[in-house]
Amino acid sequence: MSKIFRLRQRVLAFLALLLLPLLCMQLGQAEAARRSAVHELNYFRSMETEVDGEQVLRLEIGLNRDNLDYTVIEKQRLRRQLVLDLQETKPGRVKKNIKLNNEFVSAVKVQEPERRHTQILIDLTDKYIEGAYKVYTVEADRKERKPYRLVVDIYKKPVGAAGSVDGVKGHSIVIDPGHGGSDSGAVGPSGLTEKAVTLAVSQQLRDILEASGAHVKMTRDTDKDVYGWDATASQELQARVNVGERMPGAEIFISVHINAFSNPNAHGMETYYYGGSSGGKRLASLINQELQEAGGLFNRGVKTANFYVIKHSSMPATLLELAFITNPREERLLADPDYQQKLAQAIARGVARYFGRG
Ligand SMILES: [Zn+2]
Q1: What is the pLDDT of residue 204?
Q2: Quick one: 181 and 306 in the same domain?
Q3: Cα torsion through 211, 214, 220, 223, rounded to 10
Q4: 256 C-alpha vs ligand 1 centroid, how far in Å?
Q5: Are residues 47 and 176 in the same domain?
Q6: How far is the CA of 335 from the centre of ligand 1 (A)?
Q7: I want to staple 346 with a disulfide (CB 3.0 to 4.6 A). Which of 12, 274, 290, 328 is the partner?
Q8: Residue 228: inside a domain
């Protein structure tokens, strides 16, 4: 390294050291100013909309600047209310008492209990279900001419709670949503893919089991290949088996699939286990009974097969074919989130019976 070069480096380092605190101070001041700036309400809208296939009542509260500091209190006694507590906020010029003709919300009130402290009181009806709300902020949208907003979504069902089952608490369960990523699996006449349905049902099944106290491991929880897009079929399937084998204390393996056939009239549900596995047979049978009852499809039975994932899993395993995606009627059912939920609940009940010896 040349002497001049080294000298230049030192000078640069010295300058940087000198400037850094200055820069930090400036940034810190800007940040502090932004935080202490008083917010002011300037917009209110309510609308019925759909989120992930569910109807919600959405309340949007607009503000003149972003970075709002807020807390939410859900009151259930005496008065059923959601209270949004907004620090460093003035009520501005929005209406102070907004009547709503909604099933779950009767009115929205704005009050200022003390200076620079605003509360939004959302009066809930008897129909409102505890916990069935989400609160979040969204950035200003110039195109839509909407300011930075605090958004409240009120759901008809408890958020994220698809129900629960008794008897799975503490148990460890592996769920394998069939296909994914580069592999769509079977495709229905209107374009519905097997990989999308297996993932949706598996996610709902996971939510139910976790809400019931079980430990759940998914071989995938997004639209992806488990091994990689360049894997051979058996590499990909072994990667799924590995997820289960590596989960500490894993007790059962459930692979979720949708059937397909060249003849669009083929229909119904069936469940599989690996021949000789008594645990697999029991699991496949109990889930089969529950699926028949909840899904209402023709029951093709409980069968044995050498499918890779059930053959190579060391724990009791089952592979489910929930319906035929190639059958137009069943494809429509499979696309319906309520139907998916029914199937997930049925599988969860089968799992609960498996552990409960029922
Ligand atoms: Zn499949």
Answers
A1: 94
A2: yes
A3: -10
A4: 8
A5: no
A6: 16
A7: 290
A8: yes
